[in-house]
Amino acid sequence: MAVIECVPNVSEGRRAEVIDACAEAIRAAGPALLDVSADADHHRTVFTFAGSPEAVRAGALALFDAALPRIDLRRHRGVHPRLGAVDVVPFVPLEDATMADCVAIAREVAATVAARHALPVFLYEAAAATPERRRLEGIRRGGFERLAARLGDPAWTPDFGPARPHATAGASVVGARPVLIAYNITLATDRLAVAKAVAAAVRESSGGLPHVKAMGVPLAGRGLVQVSMNLTRHRATTLHAVMARVVEEAARRGVEVHDSEIIGLAPADALWPSAAADLRIDPARLDERVLERRLGGRLIGGV
């Protein structure tokens, strides 16, 4: 049976009742809900679910139905960039599934939610209609606050839905991509300038490590700062390499690494026997982050 993973990011990380309602909607639609990772400072929750193409499609649609009435971006403030209440919805091929399968589901879901909710929807990564729309950060530039102006530009007419923001839900970005690891490293300082400098030194777009996206953000709840990253090709640029570079760049600025975390799930081949110690993650918590464990030990294919 083909297995597809979906990893939607929702712009709510503080209200447990909203997060629980979204999780229950996903479960009720049929896919296996593998993980829920909420963060109050980012004001964002990452849901991870998997199953047959039909179940995953149903789960994504159910999430939109549950989240959109409960989230108002006009009152949303967090450190993570966002364009929509349901901000980004990627579909990822696992067992016996192809990227083409995920592209087809992404386009079906995008068209359906745009029509059902009068929501502008952009397609990205492998589902993108043009090269300019492949990169999520390009689509999301300016965030919710500048969305109306962006949609007024004919070059940024959404792929589905109206060319105007949804009043409370903004817009959504839906697509298909390979496995990605969301990885955050917390620095033992409250100096945001340090986190931003380290992020600039690490991310590919400013001359750092290939396949790494990074930004520096404050963690008001902890009195620390964080380098928040996405590893888009974890076999080419490993977690080990990322940690080593962040340690080096932080030390150059007189700062130590406090700890790190994986958001959502990561494939087993991204880890190694001493990963917990090397990444400064509690071993029990790291075990909970392994995708194959949540999938019941099945091997990942097509990634």
Q: Can you describe what's shown?
A:
This protein is α+β, with helices and mostly antiparallel strands. It has 2 domains: 4-176, Formiminotransferase, N-terminal subdomain (Formiminotransferase-cyclodeaminase, Chain B, domain 1, 2-Layer Sandwich), CATH 3.30.990.10; 181-294, Formiminotransferase, C-terminal subdomain (Alpha-Beta Plaits). Helices cover 32% and strands 23% of the residues. It contains 10 helices and 11 strands. The protein has helices spanning 16-29, 53-67, 99-117, 136-140, 147-151, 192-202, 239-252, 275-279, 283-287, 291-294, and strands at residues 4-6, 9-10, 32-39, 44-51, 86-93, 121-125, 172-176, 181-187, 212-219, 224-231, 257-263. Strands 1, 2, 3, 4, 5, 6 and 7 form a 7-stranded mixed beta sheet that branches. A hairpin with a 4-residue loop joins β3 and β4. α1 (16-29) packs antiparallel against α2 and α2 (53-67) runs parallel beside α3. It is globular and about 50 Å long. The model is unreliable at 298-303 (pLDDT under 50).
List keywords for this structure.
alpha+beta; disordered C terminus; 10 helices; 7-stranded mixed β-sheet; Alpha-Beta Plaits; 32% helix; Formiminotransferase-cyclodeaminase, Chain B, domain 1; 303 residues
